[in-house]
Amino acid sequence: MADAEEEFHEFVRTRLPGLRRAAYLLCGDWTRGDDIVQRALTDAYVRWRRIRRADNVDAYVRTILVHRFVDEQRRGWARVRLLDRLPDGPAEDAALQGLPAGLDLRDALAELPPRQRAVLVLRFYYDMSVQQTAAALRCAPGTVKSQTAAALGAMRRRLAPIDTGSTR
Predict the structure, then answer these.
(1) Which of 62, 61, 70, 64 is nearest to 116 (CA)?
(2) Residue 153 burial by CB count (10 A; 0-12/13-18/19+): exposed, middle or buried?
(3) Where is the RNA polymerase sigma factor 70 region 4 type domain (predicted)?
(4) Would you say residue 138 lies in a domain?
């Protein structure tokens, strides 16, 4: 029992930064992302004896993370914001630093529906195949392809340079 528990603690120590970044990319908010990660890791801890025998433990936990995100989006209170003061500002993500000032991938990603956002994060942040993404989201590969196409189209429209109509 102690070995399994120590193995879980080591897993969390080494994977937590990546899980936090993925949750942030999914929901666009560090605090909500931390809540999603906490719920996902709680689920993983409860099932750790089975999870640790999986062929790909990281993929298993990523799947749990995405399911917690999708579950949260289904709840009505996920859209409620109770703030007693304004936040200081968004935390910087090292993976997104250095982008041109007018190009904000985070805003464009946040405008996508949750399922499309999840598909993009799994496919392009985690570099998962269509089949792996379909398994993680419990849907057909065709659904992953159509959601990816729709999400990328929306991202392209959102991030396209604005045509000012002037000629040179």
Answers:
(1) 70
(2) exposed
(3) 104-152
(4) yes
Residues 66 and 128 in one domain: no
Give the per-residue SS3 of 105-149. Answer: HHHHHHCCCHHHHHHHHHHHHCCCCHHHHHHHHCCCHHHHHHHHH
pLDDT digits (tens, 9 = 90+) for 99-120: 454 457 778 888 899 899 999 9
Q: Is the pTM of this model over 0.70?
A: no
Among residues 154, 81, 76, 158, the alpha carbon closest in space to that of 115 is found at 154
Q: Residue 49's Cα: distance from chain center in Å?
A: 25
Q: How many Cα atoms sit within 13 Å of 119 on the Cβ side?
A: 24
The number of folded domains in the chain is 2
Provide the CATH number for the domain around residue 44. 1.10.1740.10
70 shares a domain with 114: no
Amino acid, single-letter form, for residue 115: R
* 70 and 106 assigned to the same domain: no
Q: How far apart are CA 149 and CA 117, in angstroms?
A: 12
Domain of residue 126, residue span? 102-160
